[in-house]
Amino acid sequence: MEIIRVIKTKDYTTICNRIYKNTMLSLKAKGLLSLILSLSTHWNLSVGGLTKICKEGRVSINNTIKELIEQGYIEREQMRKDNKFNGYQYIVFESPPSPNAQKLKTGNQQQLNTIINKVSINKVSKERFKKPTINDITDYCIERKNNIDSIRFFDYYESKGWMIGKNKMKDWKAAIRTWESREQKGMSKMHKHLSSHLKAQDMLKQSRK
Predict the structure, then answer these.
(1) Which residue from 2, 101, 108, 159 has the highest number of Cβ atoms inside 10 Å of its Cβ?
(2) Is 164 exposed, middle or buried, given 0-12, 13-18 or 19+ CB atoms closer than 10 A?
(3) What is the DSSP-derived secondary structure letter of residue 167?
(4) SS3 string of 76-126?
(5) Domain for residue 93, yes or no?
(6) How far from the centroid of its chain's Cα atoms is residue 176's Cα?
(7) In a domain, 77, yes or no
(8) Which tens digit of pLDDT belongs to each residue from 38-58?
């Protein structure tokens, strides 16, 4: 088998391979789960919303969601307003909670939530860090008018694997602002040193007159 792949620089989603190796899931369920996990964290998940971006109708999508609920990949809770049904709230898991977490559901909801947060990677989690391009850095530096050398900044962190100390960088714009602050402090010290040097030269000239 030959697979023609593309260079993944943007518009792609990283998903756990265990989903596709799960023989308890139908092909349709795997596809729908992959689609849901690719959606923005701000997307309001609903059957009606999915029908607008899928070929399948409400019945097919609803049945597939039920399958994902049975397999532990989705939790669905009825929402009520003024004692009337007001839609569903969904929690989507890339990896289902362990059976032990399910047993805790009736006994200790707070502990269950802790386990779910540790075990699952859902769409409420923080966005994955995306390495900026030199153009991204240049545009942001122009916006801030800081005169930072974007190529030097890129090469510096590229050589460090985009790590800050022992931690993976989370926000490259914040790193630029920190870099900017350090350079401003460095320029301030240089100006003070130059000013002191010029004053010393003036004093020396005055003493020679």
Answers:
(1) 101
(2) middle
(3) E
(4) EEEEEECCEEEEEEEEECCCCCCHHHHHCCCCCHHHHHHHHHHHCCCCCCC
(5) yes
(6) 18
(7) yes
(8) 888 778 888 988 999 999 999
